[in-house]
Structures are given as C-alpha cells and as structure tokens.
Amino acid sequence: MMKEFLNAPSPCFTAPMASNFSQVCFDTGVAHHSNPRIPRHKGTKTLKSDAAFSFPDPRHDRRFPVFPYMDIIPQAETMKNPVRIDVPTETADEKSGSPGAVRTLAILETLSGAGDAGLTASEIARRLEMPANSTLRILEVLEDRRYVERGGEDRRFRLTGRLLELARPRLGDRSLTALAFDALCRLRDATGETAQLCVRAQNKCVIIEQAASRQPVKVLGEVGLRVPLYSCAPGKAILAALPPAELATFFKQVKLKRFTPSTLASRESLTAALVESRRLGYAVDRSEGMPGIHCVGTAILDRRGSPVGGLTVIGPAFRLKESQFRELGRRCIEASAEIARRIDG
After folding, report:
1. Number of domains in the chain
2. What is d(CA 190, CA 298) in angstroms, rounded to the nearest whole number?
3. End of a domain among 37, 68, 86?
4. 273 & 245 share domain
5. CA dist 216 to 213, 221, 255, 300, Å?
6. Do 183 and 292 belong to one domain?
C-alpha cells in the first residue's frame, strides 16, 4: 500500500495552525509547508481529524483506500479542528483533449471582455486560476502572432484586430472589404466625410473597413469597433432589412439602453424608425450613439435580399446637418447597389 501511495498523484492537505493555514504536500512521504497565500482548490473535502483518514469519494478510494500515516504531521494528531483536504475538481482542461487550446481560448475571451483597458498577465492568471508562468507563455505566443499587444507603463495586454482579419466575411474567393473598398472611397470623396463598411456580429455593428475623411476635423472609428445595432445608422439599416422572425429574435435577445437623450431605447420608437428606414431606403443616426455625431447608412443586400453588411457616412453634427440627410442617403443607396452588383459578379 505504501508503494501505491507513493506512485499516486499528490493531494494537498491543509489544516488550521495558529493564525493561518499551513499547506502540507505528500510527494515522497516528506511533509513541507508551502506559501499560505496560494489559493485553495475548489471542491475542498473536509474530514474530522479523529476519523479514519480515507477519501469518501469513490473515485479516490481506488487510489487511496486508507490513509493511516498521521505520524507524518505531528501537529494533526491532536488537532480538534477539522482537517481540510483539497482535492481539485475536474476542470475543462482535464475534460478536453487539448488543454493548451482551452487555456488559449479562455485568455482571448477574457481579454475581449476587458476591452480597451486590457489586463496584465497576473490579472489574467488570477481570473482564470491558471499558473502565472503558463499564462505568460501563452500570451507571449499570442503577441508574437499579433493576436494581442501590450503597452503602457503597466504592460497590459489587449486584443488586436488580428482575429477580425480572419473573421472578415468572404463572398466567393474575395472578401467583402475588397469588393466594397472602391465604392467606399468614392462615397468618401463625394461627401467629404468618413465612409465606413460594417457587418452584423452577435447583435453588434462592427466596423471592418473605412475611408477616412480628408477634413481637418473628422470622425473615425477603429476597425473592429463594436457598437449596438440600434444606436447607429448602418445597424438600423441592417435591422430594417431583416425578416420579421429574425427581427423578433433580436428584440428578445437585446435589452435596449439609452446612451444619449436621442437614443431609441424603447421597442416602439425603434420599430417606428425601422419602418421609416424601409420606406426611405436608408437610416439616420441623430447623435443616438454618441453626442455630436450624425450618420446616414444603408444595408448591403445579396441577391436574396438578405443584408450582408452596412454602409455609412459619418461626421460631426455641426457639419453633417439633418438638411443633408436625404442627399447623403441617396449616395449611400447608390454605393450599396454598386457593391451588391460586385457581390453578384
């Protein structure tokens, strides 16, 4: 039985001693204390010190049928408080056949949730309960492959637009950005304002390309920026082009929030705006997502009439006035039609 014990994985036993916890690890029959600040595993089992020292879990009974070696920890023989036995529960890493892939995806998802603020390697390790060294090694590989970047005095990690480059929609053997870029530049030149190409992703409107205005004061959005569909012109144009069942699903999934006094934050007001967008052929944003910014947008439709993206002209409200919306809408409709023809080949 001693041979079976020494060859088995090493559980950790912790017991309250004086004012803190001492962690004692049985690797080769020698007990030693570890850093008391190390976090305890979830799924901790507790036994009374005067009970038979065995694992109640049948999975562990096969490996450790009896544990009589209390003389290894002299302090535990007379302790009246419960003895904590930390038995790690099965994790997603252990269940999957590729723990490295699981950890990498978890890091990317965690950084996505952090947004522009970013996270340090130690913060990511704590959130995911991963070893700090493993976390840093994965981050360094992701940085080398340009999926993350780090900067600033605190060296925080942030996502780059690399994932977005991989996920950009493709139509045949060409990407939507390649098919739309010429029309996007012509729209910018005709209006004098920034023209942007957007797609719908998880009920968000995502900028995937833009032709920047040449004006000294302009509105730009970083490629990869995600905003609510209902708070911008291209997003509302896409919503207006959805089938009724798909639009109903959107309303069930999305809680409308107010970002500015002009935001359409009720189902009734947004529905009315979508009806108007269908009638006009374009949608407008009167500072609904951000104060002081106006935009006009249209949906890009495939041959079945389904929206594959959206096009918008965006600029500061002091220059892009409501009296211009109709003309800007006409130009957006023309640009979207040109892109649709290129999609159809």
Report:
1. 3
2. 16
3. 86
4. yes
5. 8, 15, 37, 29
6. yes
**What are the phi and psi torsion angles at 278 (to 5°)?**
-65, -40
**Token pair for 223:** 């490629």
Torsion of CA 249, 255, 256, 259, to 10 degrees: -140
Q: Which domain holds residue 264?
A: 169-344
The CATH number given to whatever domain includes residue 335 is: 3.30.450.40
* Torsion sign, CA atoms 42, 43, 49, 53: negative
Instruction: For residue 186, give the H/E element and its range.
Output: helix 176-191
pLDDT of residue 164: 66
Share of the chain above pLDDT 90, in %: 52
pLDDT of residue 18: 37
Q: Is 229 in contact with 235 (CB distance < 8 Å)?
A: yes
Average pLDDT per run of 10 along the chain, which is 345 residues long?
47 38 35 43 43 44 42 41 42 63 91 84 92 92 88 81 63 74 95 95 89 94 90 97 95 95 96 97 96 97 91 96 96 95 83
Residues 153, 179 within the same domain: no
pTM of this prediction? 0.58
As a whole number of angstroms, the distance between CA 236 and CA 253 comes to 16
